[in-house]
Design a protein that fits this description.
The protein is α+β, with helices and mostly antiparallel strands. 47% of the residues lie in helices and 14% in strands. The longest helix is centred in the C-terminal third of the chain and has 21 residues.
Length: 195
């Protein structure tokens, strides 16, 4: 078995998390699995793409900056995100707290709501005896209004997959050999636990 190489590590880790979201969900803990994978992708990608133009030294840094700009042009309620859910109903609502938000602003807010110790407010949402999703509540810097969103398993999977796909596609395009980059990174195996 081989390790993830330095040349592939950013792409390979995020792409593997994306691939796990696309696989058959865990039979018992599918919602928790989607939450964990989505938050891992959010934490990695949103921290990475917040590289400033002044800090951008490498092609990967400049790619991170360009992805941030791309996400700032996408609206969270438009394709490919299509999030328009009211926190209380889990369905489309005109009271959606993030109407008009860019994907970048929403995803940064969601990362902070799920990952920051001082801002983290994540609550399970249950339907009868089953976990169906999570509610995220937080304020944003410069905005004292607490906002909230309910994300079901499908939303968590979509957010993770779309964000990881855009990130990996951007990184793949700056590779010296973009056509072979993904294939090389995907052939790197992981040590298997003996069963």
């Amino acid at each position: 078995m081989t390790a993830i190489t330095n040349a592939h590590h950013e792409w390979a880790v995020v792409d593997r998390l994306r691939a796990m979201l696309e696989e058959q969900p865990h039979k018992k803990y599918n919602v928790t699995q989607a939450y964990g994978l989505c938050v891992a992708i959010l934490a990695w990608v949103m921290q990475r793409i917040r590289t400033t133009e002044e800090q951008a030294q490498s092609p990967e840094d400049r790619t991170a900056v360009s992805l941030m700009k791309k996400l700032k042009k996408q609206k969270i309620e438009s394709s490919p995100w299509c999030l328009q859910k009211d926190v209380n109903k889990g369905q489309e609502s005109s009271d959606f707290d993030f109407k008009g938000y860019s994907a970048f602003c929403f995803l940064k807010w969601l990362r902070n709501a799920s990952c920051h110790g001082d801002a983290r407010n994540v609550f399970p949402i249950n339907n009868r005896e089953e976990l169906v999703g999570f509610e995220f509540r937080s304020t944003a810097r410069g905005d004292d209004r607490e906002r909230a969103v309910f994300l079901c398993e499908a939303d968590l999977r979509k957010i993770g997959i779309v964000l990881a796909s855009q990130y990996c596609e951007a990184l793949q395009n700056v590779s010296v050999f973009p056509n072979n980059f993904a294939n090389e990174a995907q052939t790197i195996n992981e040590k298997r636990i003996a069963t």
